Fold each of these.
Amino acid sequence: MPRFGSLDLKAWSATAPVIDGYKTEPWELKNVQTVEVRHEIGDVEAVALLPPALHPSIPAYATFRISRIAESPVGAFGWCEVRVVGRAVGIPVGFVLRCFCDNAAAAREMGARWGYPVTHGESTIATLHYHVSAAVTSRGRAILEVEMRNREQSLSLLPLPAVNLARNNTDDSLVLVQVDNEAEVSRSERGNYRIATLDRDAIGAAGAMRLANPMSATLSTANLTLPRIQYIYDPARPAEEGRTVLA
Amino acid sequence: MKFGLMYEISVPRPWTRESEKTVYDRALEQVKLADELGYDYVWAVEHHFLEEYSHCSSPELFLTACAMVTRRIRVGHGIVVCVPQYSSPIRIAERTATLDILSGGRLEVGTGRSATWCELAGFRANPDDTKKTWDEFVHCLPKMWTQERYSYDGVFWSMPERAILPKPYQRPHPPMWVAVTSPGTEIDAAERGIGSLGLSFGPFKEQEEKIRCYRSVIRNCEPVGEFVNDKVAILNFLYCHQDDAQGLATGGKLIGTFLPFANQFVHAPEAIPSAQQSGLLSALRAHASHRGPSGPPEGMAIGNPERIIRELSKWEAMGADAVNFMLNVLETIPQEEVLASLRLFAREVMPHFRHDTQSAAAAGGR
């Protein structure tokens, strides 16, 4: 039967944000420019980074999303999200290891409303016709640097819901919160890429994320909707058994 | 209507030295019985790296073994992957011709292309190219089988003039099929005059539309081979039991077991932004859980013989020429129950769909 993640929930929960119930209203994020890399990672490390509710994907892979958001309810901000991809009730989802944000209000709201584990970090995207570079720094330290070349128009990537480990403030329980982002993509390109820098400790992988086979890199422009929360999971039980559908 | 078996060779963990051998041995026992009972086809997939889901990376060897323990049943590649990084078309022509000889002219050649990132990236194949490479391969294969000497200079492969040997036992060549999973492939099949080998569990409405479209287009096809194969086969699960509730429960377990582990694999559209198809596994996961207004998934051959006859009659009315069954997933059902299901189906269901005299003996079962 399919394998399950083996993340140490107790240890991981130290960085879990407190979520303010599950009643958030949607947010509209306008004119979001994103560089997203999907890259295969070592299977053993992926299993260790996924909660027991999720099955690992085959092959194991991670996504690195670096965004500049022009408009949001709290103004412009830079955002980076690192996920390990697994399966929940048959669908691909990305378990969020760490997020980096350069807007304190956005960081606070993303954690309290959707459970994103956010720390301070600045995201930049520089686009030239022949080259795109995206980077995340935190207190002067390079966390993630990606270079993309040979841009060509393409379809957009299959979007993946995010899954965040959070602590619910109403009953102090640990939950996985699924965030089904909706994207209206106006432009998408793909290209060759290189991950120039990856600080594995900073992204919560405790130095243990082995980068394996390259998959794809895209540059996209979209309007995003962060939706109401529909699904939560017990992180310790298979998602097929521990899922709750919210009214 | 004809009936076949479809093998993925799924091997559950924990893997021991014996586990793969046991699954292959059981499959061969099922095929031998199916041959005696009058089933028409045994098909085997070609998959690579799909742990637990399919340990059937060399189907030509399994099919050769099937041919050696049977006398009548036709053996089919369901499918052979037409991507040069997997196999040279020369090797496909040679292997299939040899299998056709060894089976005494019982080979069916299903063609197709891989859909999972897991497999394509494993062979360093570009998902953007697979539809094109498939097209080149299916145009070349019949000529490689029938021409004494052959040369080719194409986009994705080439060869100087050589005699490709041996030649198939069937003349002019074995029937050709293509795996139909993603939308539009039924048109590809029809335009080229090759059979539509359904490899997804679609709901009636969707499958009916595919069959209608196929029938309409194939009338004006330009066949890639020496003859037109205008047959439509669909994929199904089989668990037949006298007690309907038990049949549904066990069959339902089969389907329920299938989904979670088929979903683990990364498919091309999840990995790279491309215009490519969604492919077999994503089609399977999209449809295997499709249910009618109530009860089991629509069109599934699970339950008692009466129920299965009702469901298969709908497929027949829709124009399906053959139904291929998956009998087990991860060895969920004990071998004796699988064999009993095969016997019961042959005895009580098959005769309702046989419109020839040959079937009477076949339906006797044992």
Amino acid sequence: MTRWDGPLKKIDDYRWEIPREYKSGMRVPGLIYASEDMLDSIREEQAAEQVVNVAFLPGIVGHSLAMPDIHWGYGFPIGGVAATRVEDGVVSPGGVGYDINCGVRLLRTNLREHEVRPKVEELLSQIFINVPSGLGSTGKIKVGKKEMDDILTDGARWAVKRGFGTDDDLEVTEEGGCLKGADPDKVSTKAKERGLPQSGTLGSGNHFVEVQVVGEIYEPAMAQSMGIEDVGQVLLLIHTGSRGLGHQVCDDYIRTLREAMQRYGIDVPDRELACAPVKSAEGRDYLAAMACAANYAWANRQCITHWSRECFTRVFGLSLRQIGLEMVYDVAHNIAKIESYEVNGRKASLCVHRKGATRAFPANHPSIPARYKEIGQPVLIPGDMGRYSFVAVGSERAMKESFGSVCHGAGRKMSRHAAKRGVRDADVARNMAAKGILAKSASRGGLAEEASEAYKDVAEVVEVCHQAGLCRKVIKAYPMGVVKG
Amino acid sequence: MKRFDVVEHTADTGVIAYGADMREAFANAAYGMFSLMADLKQVREETSRYIEAEAGDRESLVVSWLNELLYLFDVEGNIFRRFDILELTNTRLKADAYGEKADASRHELRGGVKAATYHMLKVAEDRGRWRIRVIFDV
């Protein structure tokens, strides 16, 4: 791989700018959040050039941004954030990605580590049986075509109506688990067909259900607002997205928008950056279809939440009331949203693309639940399965400079293939067991490709966002057991 | 002759498929993709599907063809191991694909492939040897 040798101008210890002069056609400068130590690995691939390419998008404002978990994607880098003016800017499916509304959801329990550890194996087996996972797995819920339209329109609300969870869950889900503007007629029949058998499935790849234990609390009062009181408390983290339905929506609209782009006379440096004006018919259709896929993903995480709760009550022989398993929050990290920001002293409606980036709204923002009005929106940042994860809260600074966004995870540093080379699942499982983590995977090679060595240290990634003032660390949690798709 | 090589990409995986002609390279790209998903030696040819794909140019045609196969996998659960390319131009493809339903009890199932992408996509011919490079979102 060719090294990227473009200019990275130091703004401060955590901010590096790619000046507009670097390439003619850049409408705004690029800005990468990183520590000096991270720059070398960032330069090892072409992710920074992708930050530059994104700066070509018509209507982009501020900076073309990249979070410290930046790595090479297609079109946009993973960890990329770009805001375009709704008035005269574009929307790009590449700024969202194939797994629309891939995201994470955190639940807290009343259980303590010593109660759960002896039963982790049984718990994982139950989750493994009750949450369909792995390649080609099909869901337990049979939905017809009409009901599919309800899922696409209502998202997690549909699931709650069907008895999978409660209204309290919706209260602490981004967008209430239902993104407005969804229009099932804008989703192709093929996409719906792919979604039908996969409703309520975890999928494969890096998707997981993880049993965690609170390891450190940095902000006790904030943690308390999230129902997290003590070190040793057990949590549950769920990571999945919109499955084949979302992949098909992305593929369909990249194709449509590539053609539309020519008609609108838009020229971008990479085909994966296909885009159309937000206000054009094609742009609006994509956003309506993307909202459907986002809703499908929220319904998916809601169903998996319900089945996970069933597994806990069965294994511990306790009521859900005793166990807890209330939701802390649910965030999307692959999505485009119409949000309002101040740009050059004026309020502007922007289309914020977050591709492997998490929304991080501050205290008192109108879009966050009443429960979190005083502390800000919880931001869930999972690390790799062998290390730890973080919960943070959003900040004012993020509103001012990163369109209310922060990092989404550790970020890969090694390809799946390289991670797997010479490494067997059994070795990875043994290494993890030595650290007190049990792992179960539905796919052969599933553990090897997700081994810790394949990822950056999420603690360094989160530290950059924390030090840069984009978010504030609240807790750190360690995995005890992981079910991988 | 080697049918394909796996390409490394930070977050994802791709293949470079080879062929004596463009048809063979298209068939091997599909074979390479399904190899990422399962051990194809264990897959029998019990069913076949007729596939048509269209696109604006031959690179995009690779993406259309492979995503059509992924669509069939998601909807019907079929893993394919042999591909007869019946007709192929730069913008149009007709093919029969042979395989069977994925069965975790008999097949070694590997990772999933979400989509074939346009990233670094290339179809090229060099002295009678065709190569297709395609990166998958996995």
